[in-house]
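Backbone description:
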Amino acid sequence: MQPEAVAALEKMGRYLRTLKNFTVHGDSTIDVVTEDGQKLEFPGTIDYKVRAPNGLHLEMKTDRKQREIFYDGKTLTVYGPKNKLYASTDAPPTISALLAAIDDKYGIELPLADLFLWGTDRAPSSALTSAVFVGPARIGGSVTEQYAFRQEGVDWQVWIEAGEKPLPRRLVITTTDDPAHPQYASTLTWNTSAALKDAAFTFMPPKDAQRIKLVEVDVAAAQEASP
């Protein structure tokens, strides 16, 4: 546990919590492990528009799936552009509360959710079992410092921009409690002074869209049933 690595993570978290209006684009890859153990990689993109504390729009695109999530501080809407189906439900008043509620109630975990958890008591450094400074690196033209961390079930790396804006520029997460060790990786591009309007966070259903119900799940039972 190198103190400078823990300090860098905490500094990044504090800075992220100061951001009020921002967008972040992620060029991502995710590993999917087949039943016979073969690991497949799927590329995709993630785009967030965020207005703290109660505005969020997420657009996820891969060759296999597209999803949009709208949140305006009162209502959460999940929309599938390909099949024109959407579901809406009442939502808590903050992004932080939203993340916990939709995970517990609907089993929905947003990609790169750590961007909203670092610097809060939901991402304590006490959960780390290892923290190491790897060295300097350049990501997308930005000078960064690479760090490697470990905690139960996960190894992860983050490349933090050097200087006064310690933004995470790349994130790699390896699931260690799966024998195949699947990875998720994303390289991030930020705009920390985005001009965002209310309409960005409000879902307006297309004329041919059909509303469905967002079904609650028993997360604990699902975890017990999984192999």
Q: What stands out?
A: Residues 46 and 111 are 8 Å apart (CA to CA).
